[in-house]
Design a protein that fits this description.
This protein is an alpha/beta fold and 403 residues long. The chain has two domains: 247 residues, Aspartate Aminotransferase, domain 2; 138 residues, Alpha-Beta Complex (Aspartate Aminotransferase, domain 1), CATH 3.90.1150. Helix content is 40%, strand content 14%. It has 13 helices and 14 strands. The chain has a seven-stranded mixed sheet, with helices on both faces. The two termini are 30 Å apart. The mean pLDDT is 96.
Amino acid sequence: MTEVFKGSFTQQEPIPEDAIEAAVAVMRHGRLHRYNVSPGEIAETALLEREFAEFTGARYCLAVASGGYAMATALRASGVRPGDKVLSNAFTLAPVPGAIASIGAVPVLVEVTEALVIDIADLERKIRSSGGKVLLLSHMRGHICDMDRLMALCDAAGVKVIEDCAHTMGAAWNGVASGRSGLAGCYSTQTYKHMNSGEGGFLVTDDPDLAARAVILSGSYMLYSAHPAAPGLEVFERVKYETPNVSGRMDNLRAAILRPQLRRLPEQVAAWNARYRAVEGGLRGTPGLQTIDRPEAESIVGSSIQFLLPGWDAGRVQEVVARCRARGVELKWFGAAEPVAFTSKYDSWRYFESAPMPQTDRVMAGLLDMRLPLTFSIADCELISRIIRAEVGAVFQSRKAAE
């Protein structure tokens, strides 16, 4: 009998009961705005910033409306101006080049490798050819490059690194938390990320001037003293007259939902990784399918999994996707000619010009991606891997027969 998976790839876990209770308490008193507090009260958002700074080991933290807003704010606060060139991975999601374009800067795309990380050799070439002095590094789908090598290159070239950690909250490279190697780290709490507030994000940094500019940019007006995870008031005095208000604050309702989730994040990371390893183990060795080896230095958060069908033509990749979908398994293909839902390719972002990216094209032509929500059990993950293995195997065999 043919096995079929009947779970949902888009259904996240329910919000924890203690987070619901905290949110209800905020709704009952009505002080949703982060600067609307009673005498002696510290806002939920301010408490969350302090707790997230402690979690990451950062000196400063700002909670904002989205991960995309965090990236644009970090770029602007780091000194990027309209017309400046900003380097970034060719394999990422649309909010990353969107953050660059939103402040009038120009994305310069860098090739990616079969390990789904930025190609550091191509980055070195693009630094020289473009003159770009900022890298918005996307840890796309949770894959972290050799951060020691990357930071050595960027430090030597005078390139500031801002990390997009939307998929790596709780991950690390050589024991250093994702988002803590560069000048700033940016995180998302959109529903499909590692903490769920619908929308939301964080910016962390050790740089006091960047932090102060980011707080004012986010819409603090002159209420920046209400940020316990921000630098001293003397830093704000240096920047408050030259920094625009581009409001993108997080509110107390979302912060209340997130604080209990942050406390249990390490436990959630372990649960994701158990599911990731179950699927990875089931797929490893499948003829025609290439799993992605993860370096020992990388501590992952396996909330999604990727694999390659290297050298496959588009029609057969699409056949695998369709056959898996018929058995309840949803795969996203990053090689499609047109954007689909959240998935898009660099040549779909036509608001800036990009040189051809032949290496990235080859990788993405056979790249398949799958979410692993914690609503799945280990048994579910084992079933999913059996279905993928069977359907890839069937199409691979028909391909060989046709050859």
